[in-house]
Amino acid sequence: MHRLLLIRHAKTEPGDADRIRQLTERGRRDAAAIGEWLTAQDVVPDLAVVSPATRARQTWDIAAEQLGTAPPSQIDDAIYTNNIGDLVGIARDIDESVPSLAIVGHNPSIEEFTVRFGGGRDEQVPTGSVVVFEVDGTWADGAIHFVQVQTCRG
How many DSSP H helices and E strands does the chain contain? Predict the structure, then answer.
């Protein structure tokens, strides 16, 4: 069994330049709380795939500081396109040797993914949230099952 974590970036400043919007002070506290929650729940991922948007990268960098030893991470432009198919594709392409994956991105794709694989749940996924799924079988063709949504506030 594999574990998939969808992490929605923390609270950001307003602005028109979407790709470079930065975290607010609250967002920085919430990002740290994400890392603390991952550690406390023993769901630290083995790999993180992160949107290139500044707010997503900042969220992961701050959360990873709370993990002791940060797992490897990589940037994937497909996450920024905010399409549920891209999120599914990223998970399906992960090497089988990776037991736990985090995808750090945005709504609406994270909420859409949660609804699609949540067994009919209509979950809200506010900024600074982690959605946990289990994947039975391989990354390529396993069944994805919703476990929980946790909103982390610092």
Answer: 5, 6
**100-105 and 47-50 beta bridge pairing:** parallel
pLDDT, residue 119, reads 76
The hierarchical CATH code for the domain 2-151 is 3.40.50.1240
Q: Where are the domains of the chain?
A: 2-151
Helices (H), 6-149: 25-40, 54-65, 77-80, 84-92, 109-117
Q: Per-residue confidence at 68, pLDDT binned at 50, 70, 90?
A: confident
Q: How confident is the model at residue 16 (pLDDT cuts 50, 70, 90)?
A: confident
Is the pLDDT confidence value at 123 over 90?
A: no
Angle at 154 between CA 14 and CA 73, to 5 degrees: 75
Could you give the residue ranges of the DSSP H alpha helices within 14-83?
25-40, 54-65, 77-80
Query: Listing from the earlier edge strand, what are the strands of the sheet with 143-151?
Result: 73-75, 47-50, 100-105, 2-8, 129-136, 143-151
The whole-model pTM stands at 0.97
